[in-house]
Amino acid sequence: MSQNHLAEFEEIVLLTVSILDGNAYGLNIIEEIDKRINRRVSLGAIQTVLKRLEEKKFLKSEFGEATKIRGGKRKRYYSITGEGRFILKETKEQRMGLWEAIPTYSLQILS
Amino acid sequence: MGSHSDLFSTDLIMKLQQNPEPPALIIQLFRWFCKPELVEEIEGDLVEQYQLNHQLKGSFKAKLKLLKEVILLFRPSIYGSLQSKLLWVFGPSDVQRGILIVLFMLIAQMLLRSEYEHYTLLLTSLLIVFIDIVKLVQIRNQEKVQGHQIFIERKRDLIFKIVFIAGFLVVWYLLYYAIKAWL
Questions:
Q1: Which value does ipTM take for this structure?
Q2: pTM of the prediction?
Q3: Domain map of chain A by residue range?
Q4: Hey, are the CB atoms on A70 and B44 less than 8 Å from each other?
Q5: How far does B116 lie from chain A, in Å, by closest CA?
Q6: Confidence class of residue B33 from pLDDT cuts 50, 70 and 90?
Q7: What torsion do the CA atoms of A86, A87, A89, A92 make, to the nearest 10 degrees?
Q8: Is residue A41 within 8 Å of residue B113, measured between CB atoms?
Q9: How many helices and strands, by DSSP H and E, does chain B display?
Q10: Which fold has domain A8-110?
């Protein structure tokens, strides 16, 4: 996948991190995706995408607090960067452009 | 915002304070293959998920789900370089056996992701045995020069692999259908 484009799952994760607004960590992102779009994903899948988005500079992260529930391990909180917001906006515009380009009769068939 | 208080009820949070320990062996397996810089973050998520499942679904299902998550974490972005880990565990002379175990973990992961990939397990098993038979034949041809010892060792290794693969196949299919029925 190109550096300047988002894959479908990357877009979902980036949007979910934005929704969680500063409270996004691995397990929380999984729960949010499940709750919002009814899609159960594994920790492995989430971690891979989070690291990829961080490499692309669309996300940044920092360690949070250690809790007893996590066996004393710290959470890593993710947040969206300016570049991440830009790519989301661009992706949305591209999608909207494609939707608007569909002939009206095709949409009637789709619905 | 999806904070803990939104996701889990107060009762559940109180129960989680009891902190049941996840199985040490599964956590050790995860720590072995995971890149050191990722261990803290992912292990925390695994432990938190285990404790939540422990309260919601019971100990046995929580352990199975933990094992499944650890197997699904076995991917290049998480394990980094496998070569050094295999050398650390098996020593330079026995890396082949280590590769076999890694290969089976990858196949197990593939099977957990999809129900339509059963044939890959059989095909890969046959391929491993075939490669070893070819090597055995090569060594037998060199036997006249090098003596019998290497051939005997290789044959023993091949028999071990065939027994291992057959045993793995039987145990895997039994476990797979038991887990499917249970979950």
A1: 0.86
A2: 0.64
A3: 8-110
A4: yes
A5: 19
A6: confident
A7: 180
A8: no
A9: 10, 0
A10: Arc Repressor Mutant, subunit A (1.10.10)
